[in-house]
């Protein structure tokens, strides 16, 4: 979900699971054998910290039963309406021979139909400022909101916005390119 405005205001890009699958795949690519507790469960629903067991099981829903509800809400909105694969029907990299069948869902709200845009932007900026003015938890320096880590990570390179790419993922791409005889830039 994105709330655009005159400044980078708020951008939420998240999985409805405790950790995104990409984090577990990155652990596998990096040769790690364990992941933090609470990220995944085995094929019988028992929590696991073993990377390979997690990849044969499923991701832990964010926030317990409430998170399961949010995940189903997202499935209903994104895939139910979009007509793509739902839940375990999704194929792709992890399930060879099964098409990805992803779908997209876009909803745009014309805020100007509800209130003047400048009022809306001030309200959003006020909420962001209110949250950021909270006292950080012990051991932290600041409060960040959705979008802050991504905006901090983006860099300009030759006039193009670029984002950091995990070294292990790059190494896997290089190895795949070499196996297939594809030149690496």
Describe this structure in words.
With 185 residues, this protein is mainly alpha-helical. Helix content is 38%, strand content 9%. The chain contains 6 helices and 7 strands. It has helices spanning 21-29, 51-56, 64-82, 117-132, 148-153, 167-180, and strands at 2-3, 10-11, 40-41, 47-48, 58-59, 155-157, 160-162. The strands form 3 sheets. It has a 3-stranded antiparallel sheet with strand order 4-3-5. The radius of gyration is 20 Å and the shape is globular.
Task: List its salient traits.
two-stranded antiparallel sheet, 38% helix, mainly alpha, 185 residues, three-stranded antiparallel beta sheet
Total of DSSP H or I helical runs spanning 4+ residues? 6
Structural class: mainly alpha
Percentage of residues in strands? 5-15%
Distance between the termini: 33 Å
Strand order, biggest sheet? 4-3-5
Average predicted confidence as pLDDT: 86
Query: What Rg is obtained from the alpha carbons, in whole angstroms?
Result: 20 Å
Q: Helicity, in percent?
A: 25-40%
| Helix and strand element order | EEHEEHEHHHEEH
> What does the overall shape look like?
globular
Q: Outline the low-pLDDT stretches.
A: none
Quantity of strands, as a count: 7
Sheet having the most strands: 3 strands, antiparallel
Quick synopsis:
The strands form three sheets. Strands 4-3-5 form a three-stranded antiparallel β-sheet. Strands 1-2 form a two-stranded antiparallel sheet.
């Amino acid at each position: 979900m994105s709330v655009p405005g005159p400044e980078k205001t708020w951008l939420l890009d998240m999985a409805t699971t405790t950790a995104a699958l990409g984090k577990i795949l990155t652990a596998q690519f990096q040769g790690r054998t364990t992941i933090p507790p609470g990220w995944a469960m085995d094929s019988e629903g028992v929590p696991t910290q073993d990377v390979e067991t997690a990849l044969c099981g499923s991701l832990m829903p964010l926030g317990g039963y409430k998170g399961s509800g949010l995940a189903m809400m997202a499935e209903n909105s994104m895939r139910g309406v979009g007509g793509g694969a739902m839940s375990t029907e999704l194929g792709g990299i992890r399930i060879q021979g099964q098409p990805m069948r992803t779908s997209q869902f876009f909803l745009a709200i014309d805020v100007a139909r509800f209130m003047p845009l400048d009022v809306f932007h001030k309200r959003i900026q006020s909420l962001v400022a209110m949250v950021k003015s909270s006292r950080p938890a012990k051991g932290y320096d600041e409060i960040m909101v959705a979008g802050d880590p991504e905006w901090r990570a983006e860099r300009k390179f030759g006039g193009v916005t670029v984002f950091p790419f995990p070294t292990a993922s790059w190494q896997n791409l290089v190895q795949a390119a070499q196996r297939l005889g594809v030149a690496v830039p």
